[in-house]
User: Fold this.
Amino acid sequence: MNKPIIKFAADFGPLLIFFIIYFNNENDLKLAIPPFIIATLISLTIIYFLEKRIPMTPLISGILITFFGGLTLYFDNKIFFYMKPTIINLLFANVLFFGKYFTQKPLLKVFFQNTLDLEDEGWKKLNTRWIGFFILVAILNEIVWRTQSEVFWVNFKVWGLLPISFIFAASQYPLINKYKLKQ
Assistant:
């Protein structure tokens, strides 16, 4: 198996495991959370062995999945798990906001400097767009879990948030292309 396929499986495998176990066990969130946590920790280990480091986003997500999953199980209260996407997205928005307004540097540039080479104006615009996106997704998660059934929320989390994120990221291509540094 080649490295990109393994990395893709490590990134999305835990979510797929969560989804399969949830729907194969009469929609029992408490049965799906422990394998999700274990798969996430295994995934982080695989990423570490492939890259000799764990990127910040999967690391923070893994910590929060373990933390909020554990709180959900310990207190027998699903609200902790429902709010995890909200908290993760608000955390990312706040980190980018802090970088933009307090250090005067778009932190996306720090996170993706080895991947993208953009003019400073492009980094600033991309950073602002991602702040807005993370806030919007946090609000959307709150609306869905507070107004819909658990089954709907699980489907939204797996089949809604991921495509929304991919579509948003892909929609940034014109901006990236416009501000790409000429080499």
Summary: The chain has eight helices and no strands. The chain has a mean pLDDT of 90. Residues 78-183 form one domain. Residues 22 and 29 are 6 Å apart (CA to CA).
